[in-house]
Amino acid sequence: MTDLAAQNAAAAEAMTSRIVGPTILMGDGLYFDFEAPDADGMTIEDYAWGLVASNRFRGQSRCTQCAAPWHRMLYNVAQHCVLMVKAMYEDGQPLAAIYQGLMHESDEVAWGDIPGPAKQLFP
What we know:
single chain, mainly alpha, two-stranded antiparallel ribbon, globular
């Protein structure tokens, strides 16, 4: 367990009453407050788990290159980020840009996502 994760676990223990209201308990023990979002205490483990557990396109993905045509598959947000980083690295992008590519879905760790076509329906 990282130092930050241990600190988060201790803080969560001290703040158990915060579970009521618009908050979620992150895997490392930090309460994420949707009314006052702050990712300062979020660990890389929280980030990775949140994105691995969230599928792109609400889980409605098909593999067009699989043996069975149009075979269903899961394509999670973490995989999307890693594939982007791979493409950026192979394209010779600077490391700072590659890092931004890796972290570009940070808001989805706690908030989740709405499929792109549906986003245009929101003001």
